[in-house]
Design a protein that fits this description.
The chain has a single domain, classed as Glycogen Phosphorylase B (Rossmann fold, 3-Layer(aba) Sandwich). Strand 2, helix 2 and strand 3 form a beta-alpha-beta unit. The relative contact order is 0.17. By secondary structure, the chain is α/β, with parallel strands linked by helices. The two termini are about 25 Å apart. It is built from five helices and seven strands; from the N terminus they run E-H-E-H-E-H-E-H-E-H-E-E. The chain has a seven-stranded parallel β-sheet with strand order 3-2-1-4-5-6-7. Helix 4 runs parallel beside helix 5.
């Protein structure tokens, strides 16, 4: 079973690495954007890079194109994401075009209010986790609390 770990670089990637025990025994790869200093964390992994869309429409379309190419090549059965906006194209395209199962983990920094990416990912996810009990009431019945990744 092939798994895509798709998330923004930085803290979101660090959170994804915290749950490595959940996917380390499978055929997995990372899809993120390049950020100086973060490469050391995943330099021995199989990684695909795109650009950070940064709420810029031109960069967003480039990210969508890169996402399609990666998903077409790898065809993951599962996409695991800790956010943020970078992951949304993978979540949507993975679900609609490749029928991937989507597991989304709302970021640890969201205690009381949902993130924008969480609000979008919720509708496409098969499993949706929050890391704070207080956040459960902001999402629907699909949201699950199992503790924090740290």
């Amino acid at each position: 079973m092939k798994i895509c770990i798709c998330c923004s670089a930085g803290g979101h990637l660090i959170e994804a690495l915290q749950i490595k025990d959940a996917y380390k025994d499978y055929d997995y790869f990372f899809f993120t954007f390049y950020q100086k200093g973060i490469i050391d964390e995943i330099k021995k992994e199989r990684v695909y890079f795109s650009i950070n869309p940064e709420r810029n429409i031109i960069k967003f379309f480039k990210c969508i194109t890169d996402t399609f190419k990666v998903l077409m090549k790898e065809k993951p059965k599962i996409i695991i994401s800790t956010g943020a906006g970078f992951a949304i194209p993978s979540i949507i395209l993975g679900k609609l075009l490749f029928r991937s199962k989507i597991i989304f983990i709302e970021t640890f920094t969201r205690i009381y209010e949902p993130s924008m990416s969480g609000k979008i990912a919720y509708y496409f996810s098969d499993l949706f986790f929050v890391q704070w009990k207080q956040l459960l009431s902001k999402y629907g019945k699909k949201a699950v609390y199992r503790g924090a990744v740290f």
